[in-house]
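Need the bound structure for S-adenosylmethionine, inputs here:
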Amino acid sequence: MIGAKTAALFLTHRTPHLLIVRLRHYFKNMLCTDLHPPAAVRGMTRLSREAFNKTIKTPHLIVPKDVNLNNVCRVIKKFLLKMERYKPVVSEEYKITLHPLAVQRWEDLAEVELDKLGIDSKALVWQEIQLGYENWKYDEIFKAVLPEDKEALSSFSKIGHIVHLNLKDHLLAYRELIGAVLLDKIPGCRTVVNKSVTIDNTYRNFQMELLCGEPDYQVDVKENGCAFKFDFSKVYWNPRLSTEHEKVVKMLNKNDILFDLYAGVGPFTVPAARKGCTVFSNDLNPDSYQALVENCTLNKVSKNVKCYNKDAIDFIQQEMKHALLETCANESFKGHIHITMNLPAMAVEHLPYFPALLKGEKIVNLQQKPLVHVYCFAKGVDDKKLIAQKLVEQWLGTDVDDKLKEIAFVRNVAPNKDMMRVSFYLTEDLLYGHSDAGRKRHLDTEDKPAEESKRPCQISDVLEDGKESK
Ligand SMILES: C[S@@+](CC[C@H](N)C(=O)[O-])C[C@H]1O[C@@H](n2cnc3c(N)ncnc32)[C@H](O)[C@@H]1O
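Answer from helper R.:
Posting the output first, comments after.
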């Protein structure tokens, strides 16, 4: 998880070199109180842009008109005052603003040997400059306005034109200001929302409060080379999962089959179909299903994808079972079968539906064992890989040591809570119910009717996930 400051830097600087330069200036300016916003803005809850106006005295170099200004600029680069929307070189006036921390006396410029260019100490003068709201980035503004003694604005996500925050309680009083500043300062931002407390957590789409801008939640985003359109207020989308989506899609090859059990709007399904996989894609949320179908069309992969709007249990017992049997019977199928289960708060509870799924069916040889990628939250201080494995084993009702491909860390969501992926193979014994798998079911679900496992996620599944922002 990156902080707001770093998030801002990453949002605007994609190359490491530019990021380092920006960081250098950020810290240099932060060390110089003259370059901070006025102290009076501390505690401001409604944005007053004028309150940021201030006048400061800074060193300037007044370059004689007969000296080549470009040559001076070249040697003096690292002494310039660099601030947002501030031009340190005014060519018409042959005037250069220098950084007040770097240049306090003529001797500070000794290393650039200005005398060799025909400039002497008389050229260094102190003059007033006006600074205002436009000269600070949003992170500098928040540092000046928000309470000093409390946790700063921790992070946010940008989804298309929407900036999405998850404000801590102590920042709620500042939400209007935070929204207005982000709308002003984040390129391409038209809408700023905050995750509100009321959660519709079955579909993992959070209620959100509009902080600033247009109430337009229909977004266009790109991920892993594919285009996605959806209504962010109605479906699940998390830009922090793009690397994980990419990792799993990389494991797939043309002609493989993917069962995407909780597909959302298609971040596994669409790129997999683009690779030439056949995808059986399912989501319970009718809005996700709708967007999934449209995203398949948008990316011209509809011919490779069958979309369903079902509970995952029904999908497993009907479509998946049927397609598995068909695939097993098809001797010409040479691909691999993958099953993605990204609903970390409860996907493990659906694992008991795999053992004995094909029980009583004509036994055919599984040329390739289906590979399940199930996500879960590993909570606690112990080894998270072990916690994740235990969770899977409890719900699957059997050890997975001999079935494991890998257990991978996906991301940290809260203190002592990590999202993990357990990738393991479904063996023939398991699917045909030959092993004791399923008998050692998790205590809580033992002997419960299937309907009971179709529970919606609990509030606690999501609420304690403090850092989660969808
Ligand atoms: C965490 S999101 C994952 C979406 C997408 N696969 C991704 O990686 O971004 C989980 C999805 O599961 C869906 N869902 C929740 N309960 C479900 C259930 N019982 N059966 C099928 N889908 C369900 C939600 O609507 C949501 O889109």
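Comments: The chain has three domains: 29-135, 146-216, 234-432. The longest strand covers residues 404-414.
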